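Here is one chain, start to finish.
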Amino acid sequence: MGDDNRSREPGHGGTPVVGMVGAGQLARMTAQAAIGLGIEFRVLAAAPGESAAQVCARTVIGDYTSAGDLLGFGIGCDVVTFDHEHVPGAQLAVLGQVTAIRPGPEALVFAQDKLAMRNRLSSLRALSGRGVRCPRYRHVGTLADVLDFAADEHAAGRPEWPVVLKAISGGYDGRGVWICDSKEAVREVLSHGIALLAEEYVPFERELAVLVARSPKGQGACYPVVQTVQRDGICREVIAPAPGLSPELAERAQWLGLSIAAELGVTGLLAVELFESGTELVINELAMRPHNSGHWTIDAAVTSQFEQHLRAVLDLPLGGTASTAASVVMVNVLGGHDPDLYSRLVHVMAADPVVKVHLYGKQVRPGRKVGHVTVAGDDVERLRDRAWRAANYLSLGTEQPAGH
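Its structure:
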């Protein structure tokens, strides 16, 4: 399944062809990176108006849940990769009959199934030896299951509430995660009728992310550890490198990312989202694709995460990962009530010519990610202020400093 021998070695058989399932902003930015590498890049889009379909000449319209559409898309590709993790396993098996899949289904399952991910990572004894762990967790299906989990926490001298409930599959950008502080809140979540995982609520100082790349030959590369700021389950801000992070914790996070990529057999990019809790790192989520926490690399790293992902899935030598500035701040642009972003773009450019603006060509809806801005320099707090002012002006038509 997804046999790597199906793909041509770069330089032996013409220009490599990379297909990406999904046509969101991640595919759009990967398409831009492919241009510089001279790669033929194709996307499987659900509709012509999707973000990547607007800019990718080799766009195929189809349904990623259809085995026939995936099969037709994969034929002619040297390798197929993804801008999301939602392709069902049975369809991946069909796709693997005609092309290499990177990351492969055996790795991708751990980004698709949170219970499988927790079970697998909890079995890696080396993590606990380095001060890294998963939250305590349990597969739950009834109110009694959740209450038993909460009671066990209380019996161990830990807070009984809140309890975090997570959808085992399908969640992203805060969807599929509920912080429950009562039986009534649990009942409401259970009424959705989806498979759930109960987890401890982890008290943390801040959230971190580490982004690594791994090639089929086993070469690995790691970017600086970043701080992420979440609101309503959506990543709003990324600061690279994470301010004030001790060298010991930074090294531990990078070791963790590379170790998990190797243990799970990931090819391409792997993002590991973490809680910093005292001297511990607690694993929150995994993503096996380009990631929001790496958007800053387009403008302020030797190799962007999108170029790196292409290098990795094609088994090319990986690029340098160092930042080109002392500090970098990326803030996501969310849609507001006025869809005319371009009427405000000129003011952002005039007010701060150093701000880099990336818009995704997506229909503007309140709260939807429609772009991001990046600012690089020396003074982190000043960079945050400038980035937030630019992002908020694009979204809302009003300047607001960092934290608003």
